[in-house]
Design a protein that fits this description.
Four Helix Bundle (Hemerythrin (Met), subunit A), rod-shaped, Metal_resist, Periplasmic heavy metal sensor
């Protein structure tokens, strides 16, 4: 094996490892924020005795939120790819890595705000007795230990 080929293979191996590291960082260190837990969704549909009008308005809200959520999640996946590339290029915490992390954090914040707006929109559909139960369920969901 010639020194030139050995050097090329070493560079390719380093680039591959950097790409793996970027993917790992994107999946573990910077996880996408989650939408309200499934328990909250189930609670809303099964424990609040919603009337037909409330159910119809809720379905419209959920449809609209689903579109926004999917768009933001796609943007997060794109940001993770940018982060992986930055890690591959810089092999450390350089300006491209920092910028990619900041960009990802911004989108995570947008997703969290959109999720909260969705929760408040759902709450606005409820009678006071339903809203009190929903508030308690939201508090439980936000303070529950990780599962």
């Amino acid at each position: 094996m010639t020194p030139r080929l050995r050097h090329a293979l070493l560079v390719a191996l380093i680039a591959f490892c950097a790409g793996l590291a970027g993917a790992w960082v994107g999946r573990t260190i910077l996880p996408a924020p989650e939408s309200p837990p499934a328990e909250l969704h189930d609670f809303l549909h099964n424990n609040l005795d919603l009337d037909a009008g409330q159910r119809a308005r809720l379905e419209a809200l959920e449809s609209g939120f689903g579109v926004k959520k999917r768009a933001l999640e796609a943007e997060l996946r794109s940001n993770n790819a940018e982060l992986a590339h930055a890690i591959d290029v810089e092999h450390g915490e350089g300006p491209e890595v920092t910028a990619a992390v900041d960009k990802s954090h911004q989108v995570m914040g947008e997703l969290q705000k959109a999720t909260l707006a969705h929760i408040f929109s759902m709450r606005a559909l409820m009678r006071p007795d339903q809203a009190a139960k929903f508030d308690a369920a939201v508090t439980r969901a936000l303070t529950a230990e990780g599962k």
